[in-house]
Amino acid sequence: MLIGSITNNTNVNTLTIGDSLSFTVHDPSYPASEWDLQLAFNLQGSKMATVDATASGDNHEIVITSAASALFKTGRCQAWLIYTNKADNTLRKSSYVGVITILPDPSGNLTPSPTKLALDAVNAAIQQMIAAPALSVSFNGQSYSLNNPRDIYDIRDRLQRTLDAEYAEIGIATRSGHRTIRSRFI
Fold first, then answer.
1. In DSSP terms, which residues pair with 100 in a beta bridge?
2. Which residues are bridge partners to 139 per DSSP?
3. More confident residue, 177 or 36
4. Which of 39, 50, 104, 135 has the most CB atoms lying inside 10 A of its own CB?
5. Could you give the count of Cα atoms lying within 13 Å of 93 in the half-sphere of its Cβ?
6. Structure-model confidence comparison of residues 182 and 94, the more confident one
7. Cα–Cα–Cα angle for 168, 184, 126, rounded to 5 degrees
8. What is the spatial distance between Cα 98 and Cα 124, in angstroms, rounded to a whole number?
9. pTM above 0.85, yes or no
10. CB atoms within 10 A of CB 96
């Protein structure tokens, strides 16, 4: 999907972090002389970024600079056009445009997703359990010990599957179908 047509009638469905993108939005129902426009991106239900359009006659020009896209997070984002009436800002029209996949910057490092951060925390808790068998560790408000490690291993495996799916979505090869080696027999 996204964003309708760009100058040469090309549909955009991906944007690489650090790249720039510009296009014109023409909607006779919402001319730029009467309406402001924002392009909004939502990632996993949370606002990731908004880009204000500038008026060009009755059209709206949207420019995503490379500096702006460098702040984006990777993943599949919902894109929305949000029109706000200039004379009465209580008049607003949101229009869903589709999904755009934000790809990682090939010259940089991938920003860790919330799933990756949670997986790292679980793995750190597992390492603490292994290093000190008598120790109980806490993760996500729950306590785990080597007496009952299956729950924390199940959490780790579920997070790994979710992270593999996130990576596959943005074209990063994963170790799908991998077998997890556990540090203790359970």
1. 77
2. 142
3. 36
4. 39
5. 13
6. 94
7. 60
8. 38
9. no
10. 10
How far is the C-alpha of 55 from the C-alpha of 25, rounded, in Å? 10
What's the farthest any 2 CA atoms get from each other in the chain?
71
Domain boundaries, position 72: 14-103
Q: Is the pLDDT of residue 19 over 70?
A: yes
Q: Is the pLDDT of residue 68 over 80?
A: yes
Tell me how far the alpha carbon of residue 110 is from its chain's centroid.
Answer: 12
Q: What is the DSSP letter of 129?
A: H
- pLDDT for 94 equals 94
**Residues 27 and 73 reside in one and the same domain:** yes
Q: What percent of the chain has pLDDT over 90?
A: 30
Same domain, 95 and 129: no
23 & 92 share domain = yes
DSSP annotation of 87 reads S
Vertex 126: Cα angle to 109 and 170 (nearest 5): 30
Q: Is the distance from CB of 95 to CB of 133 less than 8 angstroms?
A: no
**pLDDT surpassing 80 at residue 140:** no
Q: What percent of the chain has pLDDT over 70?
A: 81
Cβ-based neighbour number of residue 180 at 10 Å: 8
- The DSSP result for 43-77, as a single string, is ETTEEEEEEE-EEETTEEEEEE-HHHHTT--SEEE
Claim to verify: residue 125 and residue 145 sit in the same structural domain: yes
In the chain, helix, strand, coil percent, each to 5? 25, 35, 45
Q: What phi and psi, each to the nearest 5 degrees, are found at residue 59?
A: -95, 160
